UniProtKB/TrEMBL annotation:
SUPFAM superfamilies on file: NAD(P)-binding Rossmann-fold domains
Keywords: Plasmid
Source organism superkingdom: Bacteria
Domain Ketoreductase, residue spans: 5-201
Similarity remark: Belongs to the short-chain dehydrogenases/reductases (SDR) family.
Signal peptide, first to last residue: none
Species of provenance: Sphingomonas paeninsulae
Entry protein name: SDR family oxidoreductase
Length: 301
């Protein structure tokens, strides 16, 4: 499905990114395997993960090159796209998968932890996508696949930085889809459920949390890759601005915020009438506070 295409996958040295890079290569793409080699919290640098994936692709007869830049660095992000053009002559799809976690309860979260996660998980996709946009515009084609999260779309404890970034990704993707539709460029999001270095940090103290972790362990990273490959290919030429989730053998399409109730007063509103009339009328339609585990509470099969 990706024969003669060139795909960039960020954070491709391990986990979900690795599986995406391998399947893209298997489907015929030349792949730029980007990985900074950092820890789950984004610290340090190890060149081995990216190079190992490249070696695996080449050994199987595919084409790949390693890029070790950090997506949060503007020059590094640009170098990822430049490597695709330099080595393979073009760029056809960008998979913004790189991400880090620095989980803290909100009132204990430092500005350093807030900024680090936003810079990698939201600024990074912006910078890499921005570097690819001129090529996509000129060739009148291209696909962005961004990674959101059910924790961001629904909610989770102790992840104000991560959840904000992952909700921001939805806004970024939608804006790219709207701004670049005229050039034949598509942009979509995926919220993955998969066991990885990042999900391994989920607390497992209560029985419910332990059950959630056991569910996650059955959801392999390889389950995410087929949807990514399809969205990166011409087979999904009509799909843009959408939010998907993959949970083992299930694929979901998420809704987006739209008005669900309205109330009109011909003489306008006061704070008092909002309290006395609007809130009681709307209360039955208020959504509850939920975590992603509350919504996706059944065993995946």
């Amino acid at each position: 499905m990706l024969r003669d295409r060139v795909v960039v996958v960020t954070g491709a040295g391990r986990g979900i990114g690795r599986e995406i890079a391998l399947l893209c290569a298997q489907e015929g793409a030349a792949v730029v395997v980007n990985d900074f080699g950092g820890s789950a919290e984004g610290e340090g640098g190890d060149t081995n993960p990216a190079r190992d994936v490249v070696n695996e692709i080449v050994a199987a007869g595919g084409k790949a090159v390693a890029n070790l830049a950090s997506v949060s660095d503007p020059a590094g992000a640009t170098s990822i796209i430049e490597d695709a053009v330099k080595h393979f002559g073009r760029i056809d799809a960008v998979v913004n998968n790189a991400g880090i976690l620095r989980d803290r309860i909100f009132h204990k979260m430092s500005e350093v932890d807030w900024r680090a996660v936003l810079e990698t998980n939201l600024y990074g996709p912006f910078l890499v996508s921005k570097a690819a946009a001129p090529y996509f515009k000129e060739q009148k084609s291209g696909s962005f696949v961004h990674f959101s999260s059910a924790s961001g779309l629904i909610g989770n404890f102790g992840q104000a930085n991560y959840n904000s970034a992952k909700m921001g990704i939805v806004g970024l993707s939608n804006s790219i889809a709207l701004d670049m539709e005229r050039f034949g460029v598509r942009s979509n999001c995926i919220a993955p459920f998969a066991w990885s270095r990042l999900t391994a940090t989920i607390p497992a103290e209560t029985d419910a949390e332990k059950l959630r972790v056991e569910r996650l362990k059955t959801m392999t990273a390889a389950k995410i890759a087929p949807l990514v490959v399809c969205l990166a290919s011409d087979s999904a030429h009509c799909v843009t601005g959408q939010i998907f989730a993959v949970r083992k053998n299930e694929i979901f399409l998420f809704s987006v915020p739209r008005p669900i109730r309205s109330m009109h007063r011909s003489d306008g509103w006061t704070a008092e009438t909002v309290a006395s009339d609007l809130i009681p009328a709307f209360r039955s339609s208020f959504h509850p506070l939920e975590r992603s585990a509350d919504v996706f509470c059944w065993d995946p099969v």
